[in-house]
């Protein structure tokens, strides 16, 4: 099933996931969730040339730094949208970090995780709210 996608200017925001103010997304599928960075974040970074991925088997708390995305112009931290344990990382990103630029919501995912505190999902933004958040950021 293809999710609905909200578009704000040139940024895509799928409605089948939740978002953070720091531009991470999480897509919950039963007991497993997939996380990554948003289209907005990857466009701001531009040409992504490297990534530091989270550690498989490690638990991260909501808001904790789980990795780093490096572009030609800057380095940005990636944060845990909720408390989770890493089940799998996207190994392809080691050799193809630009997958995040090409397909941030698909092939460019960062990790598959087991959510440890499901109630934290309620604190995240739905697509509509994330679009409003981007609009505010763009206005500054």
Task: Describe the protein.
This protein has 140 residues and is an alpha+beta fold. It has one domain (5-134): OB fold (Dihydrolipoamide Acetyltransferase, E2P). Helix content is 20%, strand content 37%. The protein contains four helices and eleven strands; from the N terminus they run E-E-E-E-E-H-E-E-E-E-E-H-H-E-H. The strands form three sheets. It has a six-stranded antiparallel β-sheet. The chain starts with a strand and ends with a helix. The model has no long low-confidence stretch (mean pLDDT 94). Keywords: Lipoyl. The modification N6-lipoyllysine is found at residue 73.
The CATH topology is given as OB fold (Dihydrolipoamide Acetyltransferase, E2P)
Q: How much of the polypeptide forms β-strand, as a percent range?
A: 35-45%
Lateral strand order in the biggest sheet = 3-4-5-11-10-7
Helix-strand pattern: EEEEEHEEEEEHHEH
Superfamily (CATH H level) name: RNA polymerase II/Efflux pump adaptor protein, barrel-sandwich hybrid domain
Low-confidence residue ranges: none
What's the alpha carbon Rg, rounded to whole Å?
Answer: 14 Å
């Amino acid at each position: 099933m293809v999710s609905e996608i909200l578009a704000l200017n040139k940024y895509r925001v799928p409605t089948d996931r939740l978002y953070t103010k720091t531009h991470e997304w999480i897509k919950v599928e039963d007991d497993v969730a997939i996380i990554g960075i948003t289209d907005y974040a990857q466009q701001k970074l531009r040409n992504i040339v490297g990534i530091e991925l989270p550690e498989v088997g490690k638990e991260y708390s909501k808001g904790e730094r789980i990795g780093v995305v490096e572009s030609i112009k800057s380095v940005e931290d990636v944060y845990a949208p909720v408390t989770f344990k890493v089940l799998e990382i996207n190994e392809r990103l080691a050799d193809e970090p630009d997958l995040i630029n090409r397909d941030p919501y698909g092939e460019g995912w960062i990790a598959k995780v087991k959510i440890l505190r499901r109630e934290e999902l309620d604190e995240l933004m739905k697509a509509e709210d994330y679009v409003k958040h981007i609009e505010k950021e763009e206005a500054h």
